Amino acid sequence: GIDPHAHLEMDFMGMQTIDDFFSGQAAALAGGTTMHIDFIIPVNGSLTAGFDAYSNKAKKGCMDYGFHMAITKWDDDVSRDMEVMVREK
């Protein structure tokens, strides 16, 4: 199966979710899930910094995954960042 809504190794309100990419994915695999889609939270408002940070965290993963970007604000910087994400990431 595919888990379309995951939060592995996510920083939020001064805390971090308990499972990192390896432990969360290993548990999912044990239950029959073979892919998950994780939310990316921008780093200091930057979509590309958030993508790079989560891509680095995901290196220790053990199954297929995808990302879903959380857009937490909208301004000209985010608009430009989104163009970079579409073209380069």
From TrEMBL:
GO biological process: pyrimidine nucleobase catabolic process
GO cellular component, one term: cytosol
Taxonomic source organism: Nymphaea colorata
Taxonomic lineage of the native organism: Eukaryota, Viridiplantae, Streptophyta, Embryophyta, Tracheophyta
InterPro entries on file: Metal_Hydrolase (IPR032466), Metallo-dep_Hydrolases_sf (IPR050378)
Protein name: Dihydropyrimidinase
An example Gene Ontology molecular-function term: dihydropyrimidinase activity
Family: Belongs to the metallo-dependent hydrolases superfamily. Hydantoinase/dihydropyrimidinase family.
Gene3D superfamilies documented for this protein: Metal-dependent hydrolases (3.20.20.140)
Domain of life: Eukaryota
